[in-house]
Specification:
With about 70 residues, this protein is mainly α. The chain contains 3 helices and 2 strands.
Length: about 70
Amino acid sequence: FMPSSTGMKLIKKVRESEASTGAPRVRICVVTTESAQATEDQARALGADFFVRKPVARRDVERILQEAFPG
């Protein structure tokens, strides 16, 4: 699907596919250089679980992994 599309379209397509097929929900992490809060808000509204701005710090990766895979 990428790179001919955008991440936002991909999130929407994944969530629509899950809904229509009953597939288990996958976790989606957006990693971007975008700094606008509106970009994060849009990604989360479409179903992104995590949002990280580049450059990505080790603590960001650790936080996401802990949230995505607790225990």
